[in-house]
């Protein structure tokens, strides 16, 4: 009772405490709040069930802040580059670029999720059981190109991931200004997946070290 009275008597302190807690959570890369779903270094790989796949899809596509933060960042790069050039360089242009990125990502992620479910491929990043900067960096890059099949023992090319990226790029042609070339947009999106996917894997792989640098326990 006394604790509740103290909290009600000091609402400002309670709000400040909650704000600090949320800021620490936002800075915590290892929690998955920003990096997304992954399998820890010392955890065994077990093929996700259909329900688990649905949960992972929703978290990575619609229901977590990181699903939107990444698209905001990508739209900011598009804004700085001025692409598509037909969209202006103000807030209206940024909103168009963000909506375009979001629509393309949802399409690509949906196609990839359906493909991976059909093939039975692993959709989560598994942290490297190795040590050292180079081996772990190499692991992060390779996992963007290959993943485990349902046996969780044999590596297979990321057909669904890159097929989804290509399909999302092609479909995004429908709302982008002319000149329209679906195959060029699809190829560009697949190429972007190499860079964006490797960068995300790198952050997941080294999220603990990033936390330590920030002072997050």
What does this molecule look like?
The protein starts with a helix and ends with a helix. The chain has helices at 2-9, 11-27, 50-63, 66-81, 91-119, 133-142, 159-172, 182-205, 207-214; strands at residues 38-39, 125-126, 146-148, 155-157. The protein is built from nine helices and four strands; from the N terminus they run ααβαααβαββααα. Mean pLDDT is 85; it is low at 1-9 and 22-30. The longest helix has 29 residues, at 91-119. It is mainly α. It has a domain at 50-123 and 130-205. Helices cover 65% and strands 5% of the residues.
Question: Layout of helices and strands, plus pairs?
Answer:
Blueprint: H1 2-9, H2 11-27, E1 38-39, H3 50-63, H4 66-81, H5 91-119, E2 125-126, H6 133-142, E3 146-148, E4 155-157, H7 159-172, H8 182-205, H9 207-214
Parallel strand pairs: 1-2
Antiparallel strand pairs: 3-4
Helix pairs in contact: 3-5, 4-5, 5-7, 6-8, 7-8
Q: Strand-and-helix sequence, N→C?
A: HHEHHHEHEEHHH
Average the pLDDT over all residues and give the rounded result: 85
Secondary-structure-derived class: mainly alpha
Query: Share of helix among residues?
Result: 55-70%
**What shape does the CA trace take?**
globular
Strand order of the largest sheet: 1-2
Oligomer: single chain
**What's the number of helices?**
9
Beta-strand fraction estimate: under 5%
| Poorly predicted segments | 1-9, 22-30
Describe the sheet with the most strands.
2 strands, parallel
What is the CA-based Rg, rounded? 20 Å
